[in-house]
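Practice problem 4.
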């Protein structure tokens, strides 16, 4: 059982992630991040948090929750239509129940009609979500993968099909439901596995959007993965350096083939569903005929 640390947070709980502006040629845009807690109880070997927190992968929860909520209530008064990602530095649902993340956040967002909450998860811990009658201001994004990728690289996470079953219940409850097929990996038999996964999705639900991504990492991540004591085999896939942001990505030809295959499989089931790429190059968007339209969560889901 992974240890969970408890401490007081000194820095703000909400910050604007504007690093996207520094990487010309990568399709993304600034967005707000909520650190309700940080870290993750899962042990995915490719996780960028291993480097973000310099090897501190055990979750840290904060005892000064009143400060968090006061900060959130002030943020909700900001003008415009903003997005708050509560799954950038943590898995949004993995610790829910141990911490009141859903009960603190979801009611506040469904009580207003301007700003959007984004929950991102590999968890099936959806009980508290199902208590509420949501509007289109709460997005729940489930990260899914092929069974082989899950078995090799996503340690201590629920089976992808269990995540899909949870996503179906959340979608049926009325939440905007996004499926993140990310990171896609060219494991043996990937074509058949991704097709089977997508077929399984449409036997259970009709997602509002697909977000596709592939393995990508900054040069220091394999070192931190090794220091944490996790396998580094996921980094053995052939990669190239993207000059736009210095990340290592799967070769362009491999990514293009995987994305085209996934898009074709999705389109057989749903010709009009939104399909977005996450932190991909402008070149890849052009090759796929997809618009370069900023953050993969800025889709208009208004019902």
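Answer key:
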């Amino acid at each position: 059982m992974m240890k969970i640390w408890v401490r007081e947070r000194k820095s703000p709980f909400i910050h604007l992630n504007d690093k996207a502006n520094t990487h010309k040629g990568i399709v993304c845009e600034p967005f707000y991040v909520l650190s309700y807690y940080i870290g993750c109880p899962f042990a995915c070997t490719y996780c960028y948090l291993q480097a973000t927190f310099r090897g501190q992968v055990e979750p840290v929860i904060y005892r000064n929750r009143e400060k968090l909520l006061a900060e959130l209530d002030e943020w909700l008064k900001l003008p415009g239509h903003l997005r708050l990602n509560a799954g950038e530095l943590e898995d949004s649902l993995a610790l829910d129940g141990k911490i009141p993340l859903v009960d603190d956040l979801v009611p506040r967002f469904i009580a207003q009609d301007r700003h959007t909450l984004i929950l991102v998860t590999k968890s099936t811990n959806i009980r508290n979500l199902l208590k509420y009658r949501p509007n289109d201001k709460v997005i729940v994004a489930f990260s899914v993968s092929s069974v082989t990728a899950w078995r090799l690289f996503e340690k201590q996470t629920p089976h992808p099909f269990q995540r899909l079953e949870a996503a179906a219940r959340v979608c049926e409850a009325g939440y905007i439901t996004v499926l993140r097929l990310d990171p896609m990996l060219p494991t043996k038999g990937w074509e058949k596995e991704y097709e089977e996964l997508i077929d399984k999705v449409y036997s259970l639900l009709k997602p509002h959007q697909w977000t596709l991504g592939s393995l990508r990492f900054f040069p220091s991540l394999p070192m931190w993965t090794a220091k944490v004591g996790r396998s580094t085999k996921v980094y053995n896939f052939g990669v190239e350096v993207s000059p736009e942001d210095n990340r290592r990505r799967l070769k362009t030809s491999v990514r293009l083939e995987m994305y085209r295959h996934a898009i074709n499989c999705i389109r057989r089931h749903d010709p009009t569903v939104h399909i977005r790429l996450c932190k991909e190059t402008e070149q890849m968007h052009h090759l796929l005929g997809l618009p370069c339209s900023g953050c993969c969560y800025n889709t208009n889901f208004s019902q």
